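REVIEWER CHECKLIST
Item 1: Sequence provided? yes
Item 2: Single chain? yes
Item 3: Sequence as submitted:
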Amino acid sequence: MFDGTPAPVEERQQLQAIVAVFSGEFASMDTVLCPGAEEPYYQPAQHGEPAKIFSRENFPASALHEVAHWCIAGEARRKLPDFGYWYAADGRNAAQQRAFQQVEVKPQAIEWAFSRAIGIPFRVSIDNLNGEAVDPFGFELAVWQQACRYYQCGLPPRAAQFCRALEQFFGRSSPAPELMRLRGELG
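Item 4: Structure as written out by the authors:
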């Protein structure tokens, strides 16, 4: 749980930049990125208010991850709270964890691309600290393989747009040539 300790200056600046880039790229899509929440959540547009992507506390990685979910959600899913996904909180059993991991492969692969675009480390998130232990290797491998497919075939359109904008803002080039060498980042 967030203890009120401010994030380091660098993280705050990264987060502010992520929010600004998102706002600049997607202003016409009636969606805002709202960091600082206790838990991540997507709230569809309602009562004249824009849709809101809430990311956890003030973590740049959480903002990138939640934007990744938004980038692959189709129009129908963007009208549903939390995109209509099933979610079981930390403490999942092995079957629940496998179901969680199945829907997390693509968003985490996109998050990896976003993280590389701004120059921060990426770590696969198992997100089940108090649950049944499941060997993470298969999930880590699936995320890496999906990231490789995205770099070979292209990211989904909104993800590609956001990634290019992040690269431009942060002065970084596409990480595609490096990806095959970076398997070690997963662990």
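Item 5: Key structural point noted by reviewer: Residues 40 and 49 are 18 Å apart (CA to CA).
Item 6: Recommendation: ____
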